[in-house]
Amino acid sequence: MKTITLTIDEKTVEATEGEMLLWVALDNDIYIPNLCALKARPLPDANCRLCWVDIEGRSAPVTACNEPVYNGMVVKTGTERVVRLQQTALELILSTHPVDCGRCGKNKRCELQKIARHLRTKLKQKRLRDISKRLPIDSSHSLFSYDPNKCVLCGRCIWVCKEEQKVGTLHFAYRGFAMVVTAFGGAPLGEADCTMCGRCVEVCPVGSLIFKNAEK
Amino acid sequence: MQIIEREKLNQEIEDLKSQYGSSRAALIEILQNLQAKYGFLSGLVMQETAHALDIHPAEVEGVASFYSFFRTEEKQGKYVIRLCQTISCDMAGKDRVAQQLENELGIEFGETTKDGMFTLEYTNCLGMCDQGPALMINDRLFAKVTPEKVPQIIADCKRDFVKTDFPQIVPSVVQKKGPITENEAAVGEGLKAALAKSRVDLIAVIRESNMRGRGGAGFPTAVKWQLAGAAKSDEKYVVCNADEGEPGTFKDRYLLYEQTGLLVDGMTIAAYAIGARKGYIYLRGEYLYLKQYLEDFLKKRNNEGLLGSNILGKDGFSFDIELRMGIGAYVCGEETGLIESLEGKRGEPRNRPPFPVDTGFGGKPTIVNNVETFVAAALICAKGANWFNQNGTQNSSGTKLFSVSGDCEKPGIYEMPFGISIAQLLKEVGGEDAKAVQVGGASGWCIPRKDFERKIAFEDVSTGGSIMVFGPDRDMLQVAKNFMEFFVEESCGQCTPCREGNVQLLEGLEMLEEGCCSMSYLNELLKLGETMQIASKCGLGQASPNAFITIIENFKDEILGRVPTTV
Questions:
Q1: What is the mean pLDDT of residues A141-156?
Q2: B433: Cβ–Cβ under 8 A, 6 or more apart, which residues?
Q3: Which end of chain B is more exposed for a tag (fewer CB within 10 A), N or C?
Q4: CATH fold of B79-158, please?
């Protein structure tokens, strides 16, 4: 593995050639908003459309999670067009996400809060209409509860359940705006074939999957 | 009793596995067969299928619930009536047909009659835009349906179509032929000429023709073939994208049925050029009525030595084509969504790179080309590159098949050179009084009258063939709404901008309809649309706001300040 040098926001950093830019930046304390990426995952989906960056020589911004680094790469994380793309993605997510942080179990640990702070924007977005869905909350599981309304459809829980734990209980059903994370047949998670590993809750970036016992 | 049922089901799944294979890629075909047999995919059916293919039932449900032609909740009727709701059929009067269907059957859309005979559903574009309103009943298609014809159609269903006046396959209307459509006789000729050349020389001919992909994106065909040909792999694939789902497009329907020989020639030539031994035709579920015909055709080609081993006596050149059916998902017209579907998965487009020419079906180098591209390639091999590129413009060579529908005197298929102006085309089709033309389908652009001198070509207004004409009295807000409803239904949902953005745009149009949308909010939505064009993951998502943006920008005066109609 070849060590290379690249520049992110005028900071020179070292990395292994071919590593994904998002992780290189985060490892060097340069924050890039992200929701769906998982470091262990070899082929990221790049679905949340938040981790935009500008790379010298490229005509349009690219997503950092699936952009391999190379020697001499010059990256800018805060250009005007990058921020605009990130802001729009965040606003779209928040237009379906009930914002009630004070009463949310993920308050102060939520990735959406972190992204909003980074973009210096409010969580209660006013630009777009509220199109949240008001689906029932599933509290059937002994270990955690699941609020599909807060879900940002990042797919992290599905990936750890299937690829890391080799269980595969969770999946995406339906498509488009109706797409939802669910167990087979829409069964309450308390009745699904769960091994109680809790990994899905650990990787949830928002307050959708929350441990009932907050100490855990 | 239940145990016997389960054993029977398992036996059926085993039989299907021996027919379609036991790999993940067989999942969709197995589900299609089971749905045909049981009327829907029950929990038990999905569980047993999952067990047989050694995957989690959740994964089967993920696939089954993705495609609009699969049903997981309740049994469908013996006859599923799917009425096209897309713009051309809408303009041709689908609402009255819908009303009469409800009247005759005593059910509403989304319901099944108590006797289990009929299910009534809406569907998106059936590819009959020039002969609408259209509806599909199981594997039959009905064109130019009027409220008066509805009772007869239902009566024919009840008699299992033993005797019916409606044709099994509705003929295409070709209004203007050209070099491509006139060349039925050349079947086999292009293939012979191609096999006499080296692979390098063959691709050089395609390069010289300057042909760009006929599906709409316009990628140079020779470059695609060259890249796939150069990729190192002993397994490569040729895929024909016959998922003609772009609203207002119906020219592939014609080519698939009337120029089948040239299509298969073209695919075989491509296989030779890149070194593939296997090909797939991915046929949209809406064209189910062509399945048997195409399967018989492929069998015939095999018997004639034009498919299979040592084709036309060429030592060591073998190629087979398999037909695969789509199940109602526009997004599978995007080439990586199509490949995912071929692999038995949800049709969610992939990140690019890697590109299919490098990492395609099953991770192997794959070319995906449009039906028309293969047909044209076969003719180019038969008649030479200059025969093709003497027509068209420098950047958009050749003639193109246009599917023309909407408010014009002579809707149908027109073959005309790239580079003609919209005004010229309108004159040809009898639509001179149009106030706007949608070029490129729902994902294309709305061109207003003042811009009718613009040219149809990749360098100006590009299209995969769809041309929809809007007459002086059309309500452009309703047109925009129909397009956005289409995208909300057809977005795969994986990426944020397309999944949420299209819902926001549609909500905005509903506000305009109610007369309660401010100019500043409308401008926010236009900005949102522009961001979606950059931020969405795939071509579909990036193109989804095009119609919204171009209609709003050109028809603000008509759209703003509506007085709401009382309901």
A1: 97
A2: B471, B472
A3: C
A4: Glutaredoxin (3.40.30)
| Assembly ipTM | 0.96
- pLDDT tens, residue by residue, B348-369: 999 999 999 999 999 999 999 9
Residues 6+ apart with CB under 8 A from A171: A158, A162, A181, A182, A183, A184, B56, B58, B59, B61, B62
Of B135, B69, B137, B119, the residue nearest B328 (C-alpha):
B69
| B6-66: CATH topology | Arc Repressor Mutant, subunit A (1.10.10)
Which 29-68 residues of chain B touch chain A by CB within 8 A? Answer: 43, 46-47, 55-59, 61-62, 65-66
- In this prediction, residues B8-25 reach a mean pLDDT of 95
**Token pair in block for residue B501:** 């953005």
**What CATH code is assigned to B476-559?**
1.20.1440.230
Of B61, B507, B537, nearest to A129 by CB-CB distance is: B507
Domain B176-389 architecture: 3-Layer(aba) Sandwich (3.40)
Give the residue from B489, B527, B531 showing the smallest Cα distance to B506.
B489
Rounded to whole angstroms, the Cα distance separating B327 from B80 reads 14
> Can you give the residue ranges of every domain in chain B?
6-66, 79-158, 176-389, 399-470, 476-559
Question: CB within 8 A of B373, min separation 6: which ones?
Answer: B211, B213, B214, B215, B221, B266
Beta carbons of B351 and A128 less than 8 Å apart: no
Please report the pLDDT score of residue B162 as a whole number: 86
Q: Can you give B429-498 as a three-state secondary structure string?
A: HCCCCCCEEEECHHHCEEEEHHHCCCEECCCCECCCCEEEEECCCCCHHHHHHHHHHHHHHHCCCCCHHH
- Whole-number Å distance between alpha carbons of A215 and A209: 15
Q: Which residues of B touch A185 (CB under 8 A)?
A: 43, 57, 61
Residues of chain B with pLDDT > 90: what percent? 94
Cα–Cα distance measured from residue B49 to residue B14, given in angstroms and rounded to the nearest whole number: 9
Chain A, chain B: beta-carbon pairs less than 8 Å apart: 122
**pLDDT > 80? residue A202:** yes
Structural domains of chain A, ranges and CATH numbers in brackets: 3-91 (3.10.20.740), 95-214 (3.30.70.20)
Q: Is there a contact between A49 and B504 if contact means CB atoms under 8 Å apart?
A: no
Report pLDDT digits (tens) over B386-440: 999 999 999 999 999 999 999 999 999 999 999 999 999 999 999 999 999 999 9
